[in-house]
Amino acid sequence: MTITASATELSAAATQRSEEAVGGLPYIEDATAVAPRDARDLSKVFFDRLQELEEGTHEYQYARNTLIEINLSLVRFAASRFRSRGDQMEDIVQVGTIGLIKAIDRFDLAREVEFTTFAVPYIVGEIKRHFRDTSWSVHVPRRLQELRVDLAKATGELSQSLDHAPTAADLAEYLGLSQEEVIEGIVASNGYTAGSIDAPVDEGSEQAGATYADRLGELDPALEGVENVHALKPLIAGLGERDREILRMRFGGEMTQSEIGAELGISQMHVSRLLARILTKLRTELLGRV
């Protein structure tokens, strides 16, 4: 059935096709083709029935999914506000759909408000949250994200009145913040955008034609050893005196198990068992800290 009729006609047609109705609701072959003007009336019918259905049932899922599909025009309407980000439009619509789903799950007919009025703020809010959380090259606390906006606005206004770029002290006084807070905000703002490591270095550089990636150093394998030693130090300090001495002779003095046994007056087999016990203890405690 092609959706070209009104919502009332759809309901009537669905009644005639009772064998195709789901949970007493109208059967809609292509819910995404429902005109926005008809979606409002149909939404009321589906919301009214949705409140009576048990969550998780086939009928409940049909009602919920149909509500999502017939109201996708709200997502497209909200997404059109961000048409300047054309290359991200597909992502914007997907994120907006999440907002629509949240609105559907939280809507209550008892509110006596149109669903469109209730849903649009959810959809727009989800899209704005997406930009706020993904526009930063690195993650920074929410307060610093908001402070970046305040600093940018204050910088523009002060530059006009002072006739020069404002200092941290100027910004702090203007915003009623401490200089430390302003400096923290300025540093955090550096994480809003990031340059590509494949970008060429300055033309005046001796390495003309090279990229920033060419300047990156290799990973120093010794760093992992430093981390391991730092982590093991307190664990070794917690061992008994003889256990520490055995470790010193085996790994510090590079003595064999036989030489350690001769030094301590015990057998090589006994040294082997002691080393196994000590290393197992250290390994277990080290992994427990990860």
TrEMBL record:
<keyword id="KW-0805">Transcription regulation</keyword>
<dbReference type="InterPro" id="IPR036388">
    <property type="entry name" value="WH-like_DNA-bd_sf"/>
</dbReference>
<dbReference type="InterPro" id="IPR000943">
    <property type="entry name" value="RNA_pol_sigma70"/>
</dbReference>
<protein>
    <submittedName>
        <fullName>RNA polymerase sigma-B factor</fullName>
    </submittedName>
</protein>
<dbReference type="InterPro" id="IPR007627">
    <property type="entry name" value="RNA_pol_sigma70_r2"/>
</dbReference>
<dbReference type="InterPro" id="IPR007624">
    <property type="entry name" value="RNA_pol_sigma70_r3"/>
</dbReference>
<dbReference type="InterPro" id="IPR013324">
    <property type="entry name" value="RNA_pol_sigma_r3/r4-like"/>
</dbReference>
<dbReference type="InterPro" id="IPR013325">
    <property type="entry name" value="RNA_pol_sigma_r2"/>
</dbReference>
<dbReference type="Pfam" id="PF04542">
    <property type="entry name" value="Sigma70_r2"/>
</dbReference>
<dbReference type="InterPro" id="IPR014322">
    <property type="entry name" value="RNA_pol_sigma-B/F/G"/>
</dbReference>
<dbReference type="Pfam" id="PF04539">
    <property type="entry name" value="Sigma70_r3"/>
</dbReference>
<dbReference type="GO" id="GO:0016987">
    <property type="term" value="F:sigma factor activity"/>
</dbReference>
<dbReference type="GO" id="GO:0003677">
    <property type="term" value="F:DNA binding"/>
</dbReference>
<dbReference type="GO" id="GO:0006352">
    <property type="term" value="P:DNA-templated transcription initiation"/>
</dbReference>
<dbReference type="Pfam" id="PF04545">
    <property type="entry name" value="Sigma70_r4"/>
</dbReference>
<feature type="domain" description="RNA polymerase sigma-70">
    <location>
        <begin position="91"/>
        <end position="104"/>
    </location>
</feature>
<keyword id="KW-0804">Transcription</keyword>
<keyword id="KW-0238">DNA-binding</keyword>
<dbReference type="InterPro" id="IPR014284">
    <property type="entry name" value="RNA_pol_sigma-70_dom"/>
</dbReference>
<dbReference type="InterPro" id="IPR007630">
    <property type="entry name" value="RNA_pol_sigma70_r4"/>
</dbReference>
<keyword id="KW-0731">Sigma factor</keyword>
